[in-house]
Amino acid sequence: MSDLSAPFTVKICGLSTPETLLAALDAGADMIGLVFHPRSPRFISMERAISLAALARGRAEIVALIVDWDEKQASGLVEALNPDWLQLHGTEPPALVEAIKTATGRRVMKALGVAEKGDLARIPAYAGVADRILLDAKPPKDAAYPGGHGRPFDWSLLAGLDPAFRFMLSGGLDPANVAEAIAITKPAGVDVSSGVESAAGIKDTGRIAEFVAAARKAADDLQKAGQA
Ligand SMILES: O=C(O)c1ccccc1NCC(=O)[C@H](O)[C@H](O)COP(=O)(O)O
Questions:
Q1: Ligand 1 center from residue 224 Cα (angstroms)
Q2: DSSP 191
Q3: For the segment 45-70, what is each residue's pLDDT rounded down to a tens digit?
Q4: How far is the C-alpha of 228 from the C-alpha of 120, rounded, in Å?
Q5: Is residue 37 lining ligand 1, measured as CB closer than 6 Å?
Q6: Where are the domains of the chain?
Q7: Where does 9-227 sit in CATH, by number?
Q8: Most distant CA atoms of the chain, gap in Å
Q9: What ipTM is given for this predicted complex?
Q10: Looking at CB atoms within 10 Å, which of 27, 29, 34, 119 has the fewest?
Q11: pLDDT tens per residue, range 62-91
Q12: Cα dihedral sign for 217, 218, 219, 224?
């Protein structure tokens, strides 16, 4: 089981407007994700990211999501935006994760796609270099971008993980299923994008509030059960 006394993290990813960002902050999200992958429907310009980050700073941690960038590109982003975290959502090998962390001085979250048990074998190589591992669904084979497809994976695959391993869970989470996902996988946090949207890239303020409340309640219930 994850350390149940540590704070549970709720991240809303792919925010692109002040209204939806403020909805996430008002709902109590701990992390907000800004997507810098040009093929994503959630892509935002650096100019927009800076203005959204100004609203979030001090209220939630700012996560900049990049795909297969090198440490020089990542350093440029950090200089411009000053995010708290970098989320690496591509095929970055462990050495590149480490190089980006060293070059930028930022905490790094590495996303790993899960579709079958064998995918979990990659975790140890990253657990020593990344500050947080995000276990996400693998994208469809013909996908134009590698995350944010609203597809869950089989949560029971995580049953054999070391209970002390702290990870975040994503992939097809939504207000209706997040409690079950938390109860089954016992993550240290959850991350959502499509499940709080009305269409790809269009966040829904009501669904954001519902998701954060449902995740928070499920995490509280889990913590109480752990203390019983
Ligand atoms: O969200 C995107 O458009 C995206 C594009 C490229 C790489 C990663 C992307 N999203 C990653 C996320 O952090 C999502 O929150 C995660 O994959 C879960 O997405 P969803 O299943 O839609 O909730």
A1: 30
A2: E
A3: 999 999 999 999 999 999 999 999 99
A4: 30
A5: yes
A6: 9-227
A7: 3.20.20.70
A8: 49
A9: 0.97
A10: 119
A11: 999 999 999 999 999 999 999 999 999 999
A12: positive
